[in-house]
Structure formats: structure tokens, C-alpha cells
Amino acid sequence: MRNVELSAKDISCNHCKMTIENGISGSVGVTSVQVDIDTKKVDVIFDESKITVDTLLGQLLELGYPAEVTVG
Ligand SMILES: [Cu+2]
To answer: Measuring CA to CA, which residue among 15, 11, 64 is closest to residue 43?
Structure first.
């Protein structure tokens, strides 16, 4: 398991939080996704043998939230 913290500047409300959490949590290899609206951070715990950080970033982009890695 690996933990990565992503930052997406367009996160602004609970709708964003739900969109991202629901959109990513079902991805194969993802164990947990947690969005913090105040800090605009997305914390993801995932299995790196099944999904990559680049894939996660791509999924966020598709959901409308361009993001970058801040920790991990
Ligand atoms: Cu929003």
C-alpha cells in the first residue's frame, strides 16, 4: 500500500468532495480517498501494483480537477 497526497486547486465545496471521492473510490487498487475541502487536498491510499499515481491524476483531470502531487 502506498499513500499519496494530491492537491487540486479547484476543490471548493462538498459537491467537489463527493464528485472526487465517489469518482475515485471505485477504481481498482484504490483503498481509500479522502478530500479535505479547506486545504484542497486529496489523500489516497492505494495498491501501487494495481494503479499508479499518474492514473489517479488522470482520473482527477477527467472529473474536472487538475491536480498535482504534494506528498508521496
Ligand atoms: Cu464544489
So the answer is: 11
Between CA 48 and CA 55 the distance in angstroms is: 11
pTM listed for this prediction: 0.95
pLDDT, tens digit (0-9, with 9 covering 90-100), for 20-70 = 999 999 999 999 999 999 999 999 999 999 999 999 999 999 999 999 999
32 alpha carbon, distance to own chain's centre: 9
CA of 11 to the centre of ligand 1 (A): 6
- The SS3 assignment for 15 reads helix
**Topology (CATH level 3) of domain 2-71:** Alpha-Beta Plaits (3.30.70)
Ligand 1 is a single-atom ion; what residues have CB below 5 A from it? 12-13, 15-16
